[in-house]
Specification:
Blueprint (H helix, E strand, L loop, with lengths): L1 H27 L4 H6 L5 H10 L6 H13 L13 H36 L4 H15 L2 H15 L15 H27 L2 H8 L4 H38 L5 H10 L3 H29 L1 H12 L1
Helix pairs in contact: 1-12, 5-6, 5-8, 5-10, 5-12, 6-8, 7-8, 7-10, 8-10, 9-10, 10-11, 10-12, 11-12, 12-13
GO molecular function, one term: dipeptide transmembrane transporter activity
Main location: membrane
Organism: Rhizobium oryziradicis
């Protein structure tokens, strides 16, 4: 188990370094922050002073080494717009984003898993076809379209919920449902496929032939084995929730990290954008690391194969 954990941690560390490098290079190739922040009419001397004060006049490799050295010391930079620590600005927005993504994830899991299980247990019935039709419709509709449609129906036409802002808990309902519906549709399809594959295995038929009640066959045999492939998509969903929050928060004027990212990219506030990208990268790496560890717990064959590769 220790070898399995060490290999996954090493891979996660390499992924984080690549994310930091990618974010650093791409942001410096997308435009000059001096022109965006100071404006196109500022004198050349002002541009030169701004670039020098933020180290933007140095060669790119030196900028990267300085930035990476600062990260190792816990310094993630300051906002170019107001001089505040970038991490402080981002962490102020994180609770509001979590207020959307955590309930949306629970919505994904509860609705998606139940719908997928019900569809598999009623394979080729009208229930199965209805759930799969809704599922296909759910994950093919872009999040911004889903959000606009929900806002048009529940906020504009029926006036049941606010169309934006974060003044009350009702303001979070439409963003949560927007994020949750798309994720639930994806999980439902994967859960159905995994359940159908497991239900067709010989040990399921053997357990049924021995007289084991069907609900015990499903709970004790089918569900644990179907959970292994389903974990993969759930790990990806954690990352997609954060990415989807960028669009959803902009639609519903929710002041989380998604909206902060859009504003910081527009203003070329490099330090803030880099912190957000690193945070999103860490979230995705952590989610996939947890999925890998749960794989090892649910399927001991993975740990055995890992030891065999190390010994060979």
């Amino acid at each position: 188990m220790l070898l399995y954990l060490a290999s996954r941690l090493g891979r996660a560390l390499i992924t984080v370094v690549l994310i930091i490098t990618f974010a650093f290079i791409i942001l410096r190739l997308t435009g000059d922050p001096a022109v965006i922040i100071l404006g196109p009419d500022a004198p050349p001397e002002a541009y030169a002073v701004f670039r020098h004060s933020w180290g933007l006049d140095q060669p790119l490799p030196l900028q990267y080494l300085s930035y990476f050295h600062a990260i190792l010391q816990g310094d993630l930079g300051r906002s170019m717009r107001d001089g505040r620590p970038a991490l402080e600005l981002v962490m102020q927005a994180v609770p509001l984003t979590l207020a959307l993504t955590v309930p949306a994830l629970l919505f994904n899991l509860i609705i998606g898993l139940l719908a997928g299980i019900i569809a598999a247990l009623n394979h080729n019935s009208w229930i199965d076809r209805a759930i799969m039709t809704l599922s296909v419709a759910g994950f093919t509709v872009p999040s911004f379209v889903m959000g606009l449609v929900l806002a048009l129906i529940f906020a504009v036409k029926w006036r049941l919920l606010p169309s934006g802002g974060s003044d009350s808990w009702q303001s979070a309902i439409l963003p949560i449902v927007t994020l949750g519906l798309i994720g639930a549709a994806v999980i439902a399809r994967f859960t159905r496929s995994a359940m159908l594959e497991v239900l067709g295995q010989p040990y399921i038929r053997t357990a049924s032939a021995k007289g084991v009640p069907w609900h015990k066959v499903v709970i004790n045999h089918a569900l644990p084995n179907a959970a292994i492939p389903t974990l993969t998509i759930i790990g990806f969903m954690l990352g997609s929730l954060v990415a989807g929050a960028v669009v959803v928060e902009s639609i519903f004027s929710w002041p989380g990290i998604g909206r902060l990212l859009v504003g910081s990219v527009a203003s070329r506030d490099l330090a803030v954008v880099q912190v957000i990208l690193i945070l999103i990268g860490f979230a995705m790496v952590f989610a996939n690391l947890m999925v890998d560890l749960m794989y090892g717990l649910l399927d001991p064959r993975l740990r055995v194969s890992q030891r065999v590769r190390v010994k060979s």
